[in-house]
Amino acid sequence: MASALVIAAHGSHLNPDSSTPTFDHADRIREVGAFSEVREAFWKEEPSFREVLRTLDAEEVYVVPLFISEGYFTEQVIPRELRLDGWTPEAWASDGVSATAATFRPRDVEKQVHYCGPVGTHDAMSDVMAHRADTVLDARAGSQVGLAVVGHGTERNENSAKAVQYHAARLREQGRFTEVKALFMDEPPEVDELTSHFDSEDIVVVPLFIADGYHTQEDIPEDIGLTSDYRTGYDVPAMVDGHRVWYTGAVGTDSLVADVILERARDAGASIPANRLDDAHSSPQPV
User: Fold this and answer.
1) Do 116 and 26 belong to one domain?
2) Burial class (CB in 10 A: 0-12, 13-18, 19+), 2
3) Which residue in 7, 54, 170, 224 is a FRET match for 182, CA 20 to 30 A apart?
4) What is the largest CA-CA distance in the chain?
5) What is the pLDDT of residues 250-280, one digit of tens each?
6) Which of 283, 250, 205 lies closest to 68, judged by CA?
C-alpha cells in the first residue's frame, strides 16, 4: 500500500525563514523516494493542518510533528486540526520525552493516520546536535570543548525544558564533549550567564530550536556575549570572559533532521529500507 508523509510545523506570518527547514527536509525526503507523497503542513502558513489530509491520495499517512517538545501543539492543536477520532495524549504513554506513535482514523476522511512523537525528542537528535557543533568548530578549538544545549524554557510547558535536559544528558554520557550543560532563555540555568557554567576554554553553543528567528539570530548571540548589538554582526568564535565561544544557530536547520523525520516514521511502522536512510545521510552537509 502506498503511504504518505506529512511534516507538521508551526510556520510564521512574520518570519519568512520559519518554514524554510520544513521545505528543505521535505525535499530531501522526496529525493530518497521513501513515500509516494510528502507534504508540508503548518499552523501559521499554507497548507494548513486542517486541510492537508484532504490533499493526499494515499490511505495510509504518517504525521511527524517538526517540533522540539511535546506540549500544546503536539498534544492539542495538531490532533484537533487533523480531527483524529479518539485521540488523547495518553495514547503516547509518554513521560514528556518518550512519545513514539499511535494510530487513529480521522473523522472526515478515509485514511489511517500514524501520529508520531515530535522530532525534537527522538534519540537521534542528540547526534544531530553533535554534528551541528562539529560544523562550526575548527582547528582553533582545543581538545577540551564544552557544549551548551540552549532551549527556550517556559513555565507554561515543563516538557520544553525536559527535551533540552534529555539531550544534554545523552550527550554528556557519550563523552564527546568535556562538559555538557542545558541552559535556557526564560528559566534557570540561564544562557546569559554562559561562561559561568563552564570551565572549558572552548564552548560551543547549539540552540535546540527548529528554525532560525529572532531568538537564535538576535537574542542568543547578544545573551552569550558574541555582540552587544546583533545588527552589527559578530565573529565565531569570539572571546567572551576568557573563553572562545562558538555558535551554530538552530539545530533544526541541519540537513540530518530529515533523517530523524524518517526515523520517526519508521519507528511508527513505515517501510523504509535502511539504505534509504543511508542515502539521506550521505547527502552533502551544510557548513
Assistant:
1) yes
2) exposed
3) 7
4) 61
5) 999 999 999 999 999 999 999 987 655 554 4
6) 250
